[in-house]
């Protein structure tokens, strides 16, 4: 008997027809404009002025960027998942959740712990779920917060499961701004339990905040110079009567070693440490990566992702499932487009109809095997040259699909010693970590570059955009933060463009043309300011000095300029 599909992919035919028609009309107008420009340059008449040539060059660059942008709208698709058709819980694969934090002053421990608790409360078998927190700052307050979160989770997780809560981030759940209608018919039992849990949460908050106040200036370790610290929260939870409760997800605190004399490679380096540490502890075949301020808003996201990863038709080549980034702190005006709507509403659904969306930093379920490169070579010596000299980790590479959570205290102690070795700052020396294995180091945008290389290797990805946001985070809400973030993004994009991995050279022979055009658009995005500055200043100066750079009103070519201006305004309006 043929099993029912786990998901459905629906091409947006009407959108594709409209987009292609618009592209054809816009392209026709561009041809008319460039015909006028070239005829003015080539025909025997007074030579064009320097401003004329600069405007022409600006129009050329903008047109090339626009042309690459059309690849996003060529074949948009939408997807639907059917989690109810998944196998029984016992047959589901394991998932390791990676959460990264770096500075407890900029990223409050209470907010980080709420993200941790929401990840632990995912609607997924507890014995198949593990949560790892990377603390690059090595702050004691974060470790203390993890211990308190583990204690509170003993009460919070059973409460979520018992009453089927849909909002499992405690801070959001207990917020007066949220609709707390998750309990079954608001029964008396539910209300009583809710009040008990709320009291425990207030105590949890008080302890975490107090820990931060007490440590403050007494913090002994430096965020840039400290030894590795690994702590596993794995004591068996019991209720007040001493009776064992239901099993909880494994919770692990990881602070890798950092020394001023060794490059730490920022977030990519932290994620690679988590890959190695989790490899010898749980070794789940799939990983979920989250920023510390992006909590799990929909507890069913793991099951939705498995609808794609467990599909035998697409799974062999599938590398990751990307969920959109959505934010809870954006007002209705959103003048800086903090919601990144053009990316997650237009571009990523368009790429989903090609080879798949780009890796977007957070909110994605990655296949562990995809980050390990080509494993066809099974020679142990070769594996050690690639992955390093940890026998435990080499064994885990051979057993990616054998979930192996820590079993007892003795093995836990040995594994923690091995984990500290894997988290040392010298472990990656003379290995392929960051070069061919794990998250790659060639750019400060480790997500963009890693996803690009995966697509170049023939891997595919999927964009899953359910009606209820799977994850919610905090976005930039002021000009200064937006400029800092935008500068980092554009620097990372241009860094790849100027390297040997330029999408126009490296990607063209390894990816479909339309997929290459999508990456090419972002590669040229950092150059957008050049024609923008030129067209924002030269036309006005030329008008004041009587220098012609546009067709005269009696020339029919003027129509093309008017059309292009109209299209540009229309395109900008779609972004908002």
* Terminal CA distance: 48 Å
Give the number of domains.
Answer: 2
User: Which descriptor suits the 3D outline?
Assistant: globular
Mean pLDDT: 88
What can you see in these coordinates?
The chain is of the alpha/beta class and 576 residues long. It has 2 domains: 7-78 and 527-575, no CATH class; 83-473, Spore Coat Polysaccharide Biosynthesis Protein SpsA, Chain A, CATH 3.90.550.10. The protein has 18 helices and 13 strands. It has helices spanning 13-42, 50-69, 109-120, 140-163, 170-173, 188-215, 266-281, 301-309, 341-352, 380-387, 391-398, 409-422, 446-456, 479-497, 503-507, 513-524, 529-545, 558-575; strands at 7-11, 77-81, 95-101, 129-135, 229-233, 250-255, 286-291, 295-296, 318-322, 326-327, 364-367, 460-463, 471-473. The protein has an 8-stranded mixed sheet with strand order 5-6-4-3-7-11-9-12, sandwiched between helices. A 3-stranded mixed sheet has the order 8-13-10. It has a two-stranded antiparallel ribbon with strand order 1-2. Strand 3, helix 3 and strand 4 form a beta-alpha-beta unit. Helix 7 (266-281) runs antiparallel to helix 12 (409-422). It is globular. The two termini are 48 Å apart. Mn(2+) binds at residues 267, 291. InterPro entries: Cellulose_synth, Nucleotide-diphossugar_trans. One of its GO terms (cellular component) is endomembrane system. It is a multi-pass membrane protein.
């Amino acid at each position: 008997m043929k099993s029912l599909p786990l998901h459905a992919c629906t091409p947006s035919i009407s959108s594709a027809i409209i987009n292609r028609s618009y592209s054809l009309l816009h392209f026709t107008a561009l041809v008319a404009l460039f015909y006028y420009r070239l005829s003015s340059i080539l025909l025997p008449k007074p030579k064009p002025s320097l401003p004329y040539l600069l405007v022409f060059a600006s129009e050329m660059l903008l047109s090339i960027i626009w042309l690459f942008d059309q690849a996003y709208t060529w074949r948009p698709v939408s997807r639907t998942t059917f989690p109810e058709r998944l196998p029984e819980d016992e047959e589901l694969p394991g998932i390791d959740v990676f959460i990264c934090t770096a500075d407890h002053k900029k990223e409050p421990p209470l907010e980080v712990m709420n993200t941790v608790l929401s990840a632990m409360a995912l609607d997924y078998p507890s014995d198949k779920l593990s949560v790892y927190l990377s603390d690059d700052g090595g702050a004691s307050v974060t470790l203390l917060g993890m211990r308190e979160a583990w204690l509170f989770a003993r009460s919070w997780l059973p409460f979520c499961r018992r009453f089927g809560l849909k909002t499992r981030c405690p801070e959001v759940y207990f917020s007066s701004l949220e609709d707390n209608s998750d309990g079954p018919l608001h029964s008396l039992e539910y209300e009583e339990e809710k009040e008990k849990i709320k009291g425990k949460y207030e105590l949890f908050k008080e302890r975490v905040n107090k820990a931060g106040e007490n440590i403050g200036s007494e913090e002994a370790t430096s965020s840039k110079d400290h030894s590795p610290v690994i702590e596993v929260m794995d004591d068996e939870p019991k209720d007040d009567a001493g009776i064992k409760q239901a099993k909880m997800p494994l919770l692990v605190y990881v602070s890798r070693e950092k020394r001023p004399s060794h490059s730490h490679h920022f977030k990519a380096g932290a994620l690679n440490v988590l890959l190695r540490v989790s490899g010898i502890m749980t070794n789940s075949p799939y990983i979920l990566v989250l920023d510390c301020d992006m909590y799990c808003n929909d507890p069913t996201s793991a099951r939705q992702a498995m609808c794609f990863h467990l599909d035998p038709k697409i799974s062999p080549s599938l590398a990751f499932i990307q969920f959109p980034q959505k934010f809870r702190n954006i007002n209705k005006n959103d003048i800086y487009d903090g919601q990144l709507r053009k990316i997650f509403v237009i571009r990523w659904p368009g790429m989903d109809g090609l080879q798949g969306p780009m890796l977007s930093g957070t909110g994605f379920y990655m296949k562990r095997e995809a980050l390990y490169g080509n494993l066809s070579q099974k020679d142990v010596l070769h594996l050690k040259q690639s992955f390093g000299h940890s026998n435990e980790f080499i064994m885990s590479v051979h057993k990616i699909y054998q979930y192996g959570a820590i079993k007892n205290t003795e093995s836990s102690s040995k594994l923690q010693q091995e984990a500290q070795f894997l988290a040392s700052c010298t472990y990656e020396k003379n290995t392929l970590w960051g070069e061919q294995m794990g998250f790659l180091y060639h750019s400060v945008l480790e997500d963009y570059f890693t996803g690009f290389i995966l697509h170049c290797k023939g891997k595919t990805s999927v964009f899953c955009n359910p009606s209820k946001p799977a994850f919610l985070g905090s976005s930039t809400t002021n000009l200064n933060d937006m400029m800092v973030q935008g500068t980092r993004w554009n620097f990372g994009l241009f860094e790849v463009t100027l390297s040997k991995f330029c999408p126009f050279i490296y990607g063209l022979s390894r990816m479909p043309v339309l997929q290459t055009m999508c990456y090419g658009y972002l590669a040229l995005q950092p150059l957008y300011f050049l024609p923008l500055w030129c067209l924002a200043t030269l036309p006005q100066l030329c008008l004041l000095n009587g220098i012609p750079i546009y067709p005269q009103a009696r020339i029919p070519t003027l129509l093309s300029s008017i059309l292009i201006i109209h299209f540009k305004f229309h395109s900008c309006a779609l972004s908002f």
